[in-house]
Design goal:
This protein is α+β, with helices and mostly antiparallel strands. It has helices at about 40-55, 70-85, 105-110, 115-120, 120-125, 130-140, 145-150, 180-190, 230-235, 260-265, 270-280, 295-305, 360-365, 365-375, 410-415, 420-430, 450-455, and strands spanning about 15-20, 60-70, 90-100, 280-285, 305, 310, 320-325, 340-345, 350-355, 435-440, 440-445, 455-465. It has one domain (about 10-465): Alpha/Beta hydrolase fold, catalytic domain (Rossmann fold, 3-Layer(aba) Sandwich), CATH 3.40.50.1820. Strands 1, 2, 3, 4, 7, 8, 9, 10, 11 and 12 form a ten-stranded mixed β-sheet that branches. Helix 6 packs across helix 16. The longest helix is centred in the first third of the chain and has 18 residues, at about 40-55.
Length: about 475
C-alpha cells in the first residue's frame, strides 16, 4: 500500500487551515439532510461556524471563502450571507476563490459550449469527421452556435435570455439537443477511459486513493480502502469510525435531491456580485481541459452578471498568468512554472484559465493554485508579479524576459481561430471547500450537475496572525 508523502504545495504552508465537510450528508458530516436551497446551506454553515469560532476563540479573524466544483454554488451564498450579517467578530469575509465552479444551469456550462470545446481539444477526443460534422450540425440546429457567437463576447452583448436554446420551459432538452451527452458517448468509443474531468486522460484509468479515479469508482485489487476510510486515518483525524466517507455522496444532500437555487436558473448570480463588491477580492479559476464544467460556460455566466455598476468584463481576457520558477528536484511535487495560462481582472473580480489543468485544478496545476492563494491572501500583488513564492527559502531566480500574452485564448471568435474549428465549420458550411481564517481565514468548498451536487464540499479555515 502506498503511503502519503509531504506536499510542498499544501496550503497550510501559507496559512492555518481547518477542513469542514459540508453540507450535511457529504463526507464525514453527520445529521439529517434538511436543506432545500443554498440559503438553507448558508444558514446551517453559519451556525456551525459561529460555534466553531466561539469554541476556539477565533473572533475577529479574516475569512476567505474558497472552493471548487459545486462550491461555485455553496461559496457565494455562504460568503454573501456572512457579509450581510455585518458581524466581523464571527464573519469577517475578506475574499473568495472558486476553481471550476458551477455558476449556472448545466446546459449553459455543458451543452451550449460543447462543440467549441471539442474544436479546441479534437486531438484529445479523437472524434472522426462524420461525428464532428453531426455534432456541429446539432449545435447549429439547437441554437448553441448562434448563442455563443452573440453572447461570448467582450464587452457583453446584453442580458442573456432566461430560457436557454435547446431547452423547454420545464428544463428538458428539445429533440437532439443533449449535445454534451452525445460528445461524451462519442469520445468514450475511441477512448474507453475518457474522463470529462480531464479530457487529456487516456487508458489505463489513473488511480485515485480518494476513490474517484478518472471520474469512476475504480479501486485496483490490493489498494485497500479509500484513504479516508482507513481506520488509522480516521483515528488520526478524529473522524467518526462508523461513518463511510464517499467522494461523491450516494444519498442526496438536498431534500428530494434538488437544489432549488440552481433549479430556479440563475445559480449564484444573485449573490456573487454582493461578494465582489463588498470584498473587491474574488478569484475564479478554470482548467481549460475540464469538460464537465466548460470554461466558456463560466465566461458566459460572468458576461451575464452585473457588478460594480457594469455588466460583465469589458475587455477580453488576455494577460499572462505567471507562476514562479522553483525547485523541482522532488519528483512527487514537480509542478510547472512560467506562463501557464491567461488572467484578467475588472472591478474586484479576477478570472484565470489554466492550459494544462482539468476539473481538479489544484491537483493538476498545484503551483497555480498555490500562487492564487498567495494573491487572494494579499501576500503577492498580482498574477503578473515575477517574485518567487513567498515560501521559497532559496529565492529562486525568475525570468526577466517580456511575458507577452496569456496562452489560454478566451471567447467564441477566438475558438473559431483554431485549426480544428475551421476544418469542422468548413465541412458543414457554417460557422472539500475550505474556510481560511487569517488574522489579520479561507473557506474552500468542494462537482453534471446532479453528480456535482453530491461531491464532498470540504471547507477549510485558514488563520494567519
Amino acid at each position: 500500500m502506498f503511503a502519503p508523502i509531504p506536499n510542498k504545495w499544501s496550503w497550510h504552508t501559507l496559512t492555518n487551515i481547518v477542513w469542514i465537510d459540508q453540507p450535511v450528508g457529504s463526507g464525514f458530516s453527520q445529521g439529517t439532510v434538511t436543506a432545500r436551497n443554498e440559503q438553507d446551506v448558508a444558514k446551517q454553515f453559519m451556525g456551525f461556524w459561529k460555534n466553531f469560532v466561539t469554541t476556539f476563540a477565533l473572533q475577529g479573524y479574516s475569512i476567505y471563502v474558497t472552493g471548487s466544483s459545486y462550491s461555485g454554488m455553496y461559496c457565494p451564498y455562504i460568503a454573501s450571507a456572512m457579509l450581510d450579517a455585518n458581524d466581523k467578530q464571527f464573519f469577517n469575509v475578506s475574499g473568495m476563490q472558486i476553481f471550476d465552479g458551477v455558476f449556472g444551469d448545466s446546459a449553459l456550462q455543458e451543452d451550449v459550449p460543447a462543440v467549441t470545446f471539442i474544436n479546441k481539444f479534437e486531438r484529445n477526443l479523437a472524434l472522426n469527421d462524420s461525428t464532428k460534422v453531426g455534432l456541429q450540425s446539432a449545435a447549429d440546429k439547437c441554437g448553441y452556435t448562434d448563442y455563443m457567437k452573440k453572447f461570448l463576447v467582450f464587452p457583453p452583448a446584453g442580458r442573456q435570455p432566461a430560457l436557454l436554446p435547446g431547452q423547454t420551459p420545464d428544463g428538458k432538452y428539445t429533440n437532439g439537443c443533449s449535445v454534451f451527452t452525445d460528445v461524451f458517448l462519442a469520445a468514450s468509443e475511441s477512448n474507453p477511459c475518457f474522463s470529462v474531468y480531464e479530457v487529456a486522460d487516456g487508458c489505463p484509468v489513473v488511480y485515485d486513493p480518494l476513490g474517484f479515479s478518472s471520474g469512476t469508482n475504480f479501486n485496483p485489487a490490493g489498494a485497500g480502502p479509500v484513504f479516508f476510510n482507513r481506520p488509522d486515518v480516521k483515528r488520526a483525524i478524529n473522524a467518526p469510525v462508523d461513518k463511510e466517507w464517499e467522494f461523491c455522496a450516494t444519498n442526496p444532500v438536498f431534500i428530494n435531491g434538488v437544489d432549488e437555487s440552481l433549479a430556479a436558473g440563475p445559480g449564484p448570480q444573485p449573490v456573487l456580485p454582493n461578494v465582489i463588491e463588498k470584498t473587491q477580492n474574488v478569484i475564479i479559476g478554470h482548467g481549460s481541459q475540464d469538460m464537465v464544467l466548460i470554461a466558456d460556460g463560466t465566461l458566459l455566466a460572468i458576461q451575464n452578471m452585473t457588478w460594480g455598476g457594469m455588466m460583465g468584463f469589458q475587455q477580453t481576457p488576455s494577460a499572462p498568468l505567471y507562476v514562479p520558477y522553483h525547485d523541482n528536484q522532488v519528483v512527487e511535487s514537480m509542478a510547472g512554472a512560467g506562463i501557464l495560462g491567461t488572467v484578467h481582472s475588472e472591478r474586484g473580480l479576477t478570472y484565470f484559465g489554466v492550459a494544462s489543468a482539468g476539473h481538479f485544478l489544484a491537483m493538476d496545476a498545484p503551483a497555480v493554485a498555490y500562487r492564487s492563494l498567495e494573491v487572494l491572501l494579499g501576500r503577492v500583488q498580482s498574477f503578473q508579479a515575477t517574485v518567487p513564492f513567498t515560501t521559497d527559502v532559496n529565492r529562486t531566480a525568475q525570468s526577466t524576459q517580456p511575458m507577452g500574452k496569456g496562452i489560454v485564448v478566451e471567447g467564441f471568435f477566438a475558438d473559431l481561430a483554431s485549426t480544428g474549428a475551421q476544418r469542422v465549420l468548413a465541412s458543414t458550411g457554417d460557422g472539500a471547500q475550505a474556510v481560511a481564517a487569517t488574522n489579520n481565514a479561507v473557506v474552500v468548498g468542494g462537482v453534471s450537475m446532479s453528480l456535482l451536487v453530491g461531491m464532498v464540499a470540504t471547507i477549510a479555515v485558514t488563520m494567519m496572525v
